[in-house]
Amino acid sequence: MPSQKITERPTYRSNNEIFGTPRKRDVRNIDMYALSETKLAMYGLIFSLAIITVKLYYSNRTYVEGLIFEQQLISLEQATEEGQVVFKNIWVHSIKYSKYWLPALCGLLTTYFTWLLVYLDSDVPGVQPPSPLSPTKYKLRSGHSFHLNYVFALLVGVLVSIYMLWKEMSL
């Protein structure tokens, strides 16, 4: 029996053969219904999640609003006065101990800038001469493990710190 498509009209044959229903179904029609069922399921899921979210919000409304919205615990004048007191206290302590932290800070900055000048003035920065932070293959290639120009950069920073401590420079 030859196969028939759904769109074809059934044909009758002689010899008392009864035409049969087609064995293959047209899948395009089924996909159209499945797609709409999927859309309907998604809309239902979104709607139910929205209902659950609204219910959870209203049952915990005070807690959620406390998390989201800012609560004013002190007035602006009180915060300004306390902020000025805290700032004045921090400034007094930083000035009091500036004879220690200022030389250390200036020494670190001097070391950094001197190290940077030595690094950038190199033939190939970080390779020739290799910095102490360079990989060992560059250090082995040059034949030295530590070059004096980087020691000089460290020494300048230490000397600046010692000089500032000796002269008692502070704010």
UniProtKB/TrEMBL annotation:
Swiss-Prot/TrEMBL keywords: Membrane, Transmembrane, Transmembrane helix
Q: Which residues cross the membrane?
A: 40-58, 100-120, 147-166
| Organism superkingdom | Eukaryota
InterPro entries recorded = ARL6IP6
Q: What is this protein called?
A: ADP-ribosylation factor-like protein 6-interacting protein 6
Organism, as annotated: Oryctes borbonicus
